Amino acid sequence: MTKPAPKTWPELAVESWMLGAEMGMVVWLRSLRMMAGGKLAEREAQRMVSEKVSAAMTLWPAMMAGGFSQSPEEATGRALAHYGKPVRANRRRLSR
Predict the structure, then answer these.
(1) How far is CA 79 from CA 1, 35, 47, 70, 83, in A?
(2) Contacts of 48 (CB under 8 A, 6+ apart)
(3) How far is CA 86 from each of CA 17, 37, 62, 69, 70, rounded to the nearest angstrom?
(4) What is the C-alpha separation between 28 and 91, in angstroms, rounded?
(5) Segment 53-88, tens digit of pLDDT
(6) CB 86 within 8 A of CB 51
């Protein structure tokens, strides 16, 4: 099985823009939840901090899974995929 071709810089730029837009939506939805106050807001704040720490701590191993010979495009794609998963999950969860 052959490895798929890495995405081009324009494709990565569009993915980055889309991830940024989705992150903005998550920030907005979390802000609404926290402004409501109460136990739900407390849990959301704790969850937000723990997710951010976890994402930062697991980025390096995720990047190195591609090895030292990966191209900058491959590394960028890995970083976008790494951060995209929890962002999409949070958007779905908070949109309900």
Answers:
(1) 23, 31, 21, 12, 6
(2) 30
(3) 16, 23, 14, 27, 24
(4) 10
(5) 999 999 999 888 878 888 999 999 999 999 999 999
(6) yes
